[in-house]
Every structure is written in structure tokens, then in C-alpha cells.
């Protein structure tokens, strides 16, 4: 078969006979290199035409190929979800809606994205302190505010909002507790000194005792939630949309929804006892009538009987978190609001007293004017009566004189 061209594909080929004829022992290396060049040229044409040709794919191979060396290093995928969200929404970032009294955003998607970005920043950028209280020291006081600002750049959120800062700080605090994951391998951003401090801290006997106690406390929780990795707030928001037609579910119903195992469809024994007690109290309150007891009060009473530090209602934003070392923003404003109310009440009382005094003065002035008017009227009436009496007396006197004159005239003519 002679050398030629395949015009349908553009391949240049040579027959096997001619390939063997071109090979001799004297110039074998040169001939072999020439054949390799021809085959490589043909393979290039095949690649451009998107035609699979295994022999050409193997031409020039000097041995087993290393797939890892051919493939490039996988690029980082962190943050791609937010980038796609921004593209889908015309460059608008995801807005994070914060609610006072809640440790996470209500929307599950917002909560997961915010938590994920806080975790990424903690693992890749933030200085890891041995204790959370260390961030209050002057040397490290800037770390948490800067971390919040860095995460906020990827969202539509106000970094000056106290509720937003409080939620982000709690997320950083919860992420920072899982340092044992980082202990297996030193992150690239952590210095050796910082890493040794962490290792020394988590290897400390006292810290291990604290960790063991915390583990026992977690295992001793009677009412373990069955919401998976989703927090109460996000689960509450999702149930509100999917099951309750965008209306807030009752705390009793929400307790049931969050403590039923999806696989078995049942609650644990402790959760079932608590739920039964809640239902009984609700039926008693409805049957008795009179003072209505809210479901939140019923849940608080029942959970208080079972555990002294339940965070169920506080996670829903219906009650302050028990034993919280740091008061919430609303708690901090209570004294200020009470003082403002007292000030307004005092001002209102003073204004009322001044108004009452002015009103009393006006009433007294009106009463005095009325008395003066009555006195004047009385004087005028007496003057009128006196004048009338004088006129009557004068008329009577004149009438008597007239009668006397007539009597005299009659007597005179009669004589």
C-alpha cells in the first residue's frame, strides 16, 4: 500500500510494509524517530477532528502514564455557590435577614451559607486563639470585627447592626470550638508558635477534663433534636413554609416536629413524656377557660420540670437564653428604656400638674367673674326696685294730693 492521503479525514498514513522497509539496522533510530513524527502528526489531525484513534493516542509513549501528573491540581471550590448565586441574580449578593433573639438567620439557605463562609474564614484566615476569651485582649481584639467585615463582603448585610454582629460572633465561636479537626494537620496559615500553643492547650489535663464533662453533658440531654445538621431556627422557618402555610407553628407542635425520628416516625421516651405533658396541660387550659395560658408558657413549664437549662424556646426566639453570660441587645436596652419611661412619666406628671394648676386658676377667675356679675346684677336689681318704689311712692303722694284737691273743690261748689 503506497503512501497517500485520506481526503475525507485529512490523515496522512503509510502502510506497515513501507514502515518496515524504511527501517534498517544502521539508521534504525533515525527511521523510528521519523515514523514517530509521522504518527504524531496523524494523531494531531485526529484530535482536531475529534476522532478517537487509540493507536495514535499511544504513539510516543515511553511507558506507563501518570494520571496525577497529567491532571492539574484541582482548584478550590469554596465560595462557588455564592458566586453562582450572584450571577443568577444579576450581580446582587445574597441578603442575610437577622432576627433579634435568634442565633441563626431564619432561612435555611442563608443560615448554611453564612455558617459556611464563617467556617472558611476561620480555617483559612483567622488567627486561632487557645481560648475564646483571648479575643477580648487588646492584641487580638481586632480579629473578630475584621472577620465579620471580611465575611460581610460576600453578603448583603449591615456590619454595624448589633444583631448581625452578635450572630456572626456566635457562629465564629461555635466554629472555633472544633479545633480538634485542625490538630491532625497544621493549616498553612497557622504559625508554628500558634500551632504549638493549640497543641499544648488541647493536650492539657485540665482542658481534657473540661472536654470530658462537656461530652457527658451533651450525652445527658434528654430531648435530643432530630433536625439533623439544620438548626432550630432554620428548621422552624422551613416548616413554616412547607407545613404551616407561612404561619408560626405552636411551640408544642414544633416540639413534636423536631423530636420525631424520620426513620422510625416516633419520639424518644423522654420526648414523648414531655410532649404528652404539654398536650395534657393545653387541654386542661382550654377546658377550664378563664385565664388563657399560652403554648410557650406550657412548654416552658414542662421543660423546666425535665431539665433546668433547656434552650428550646430561646432557639425559637420566644425566651431569653438561660444562663447566658452575655446579655442580648434587647436586654442591654431594658434599663435604658425603663429610665426613659420613668423620665417620660415624670414629665407627664409635671405637665399634668401644671395644666391642673392653670385650669384651677382659670376656674377661679371664671368663678370670681361670675360672682362679680351676679353681685352687679343684684345691685342693679336692687337699684331698679328702689327706683320703682320711689316712683310708686311719688305717684301715690301725687294721687293723694289730687284726691284732696278734688274733694276740696266738690265741697266748695256744694256749699
From TrEMBL:
Region annotation Disordered: where it falls in the sequence: 1-22, 373-397
The lineage's top-level taxon is Eukaryota
Q: Which Pfam families does the protein's record reference? A: Transposase_24
Question: Which protein, by its recorded name, is this?
Answer: Uncharacterized protein
